[in-house]
């Protein structure tokens, strides 16, 4: 955390959660933002009973259903831990107060949101334009440690393929 964030450290609460902990359920309103000190989270949607992983988050990332967090509308997706995690959490109310008190952090938040929007656009266009092999290569380039930390069926879901197809892709390497 930057010095500016440290000024507001008293707003944060540390939370340790085991793997496979549901932090936010799809359809519930997000009231908490998570900052990952240690561990891995994923976001996912339910499509007719099938979980589709939409994103992975690791140390140094912040996670919330930002649309829900800002608008009090139900979240479009769930947030779950994939590993035991150490998280710093801040409530919606406290976060809004922090952003109100600190123009520097408000600017940092805006930059963060633009980066996330850009990442989401990249992911969307990659899914449209690239084959699964290319998507897998880009994922490994972005997160070289992902295959050691994330179960294969989540990676396959994220890539929009079956675990069997992912095994074939990995065996070609």
TrEMBL record:
CDD domains referenced in this protein's UniProt entry, alphabetically: CAP_ED (cd00038)
SMART domains from the UniProt entry: cNMP
Domain Cyclic nucleotide-binding intervals: 9-116
GO function terms (MF aspect): DNA-binding transcription factor activity
Chain ranges passing through the membrane: none
Top-level taxon of the source organism: Bacteria
A GO CC term attached to the entry: cytosol
InterPro entries cross-referenced by the UniProt entry: cNMP-bd_dom, cNMP-bd_dom_sf, Env_Response_Regulators, RmlC-like_jellyroll
Protein name as annotated: Crp/Fnr family transcriptional regulator
Source organism: Dawidia soli
Taxonomy of the source species: Bacteria, Pseudomonadati, Bacteroidota, Cytophagia, Cytophagales
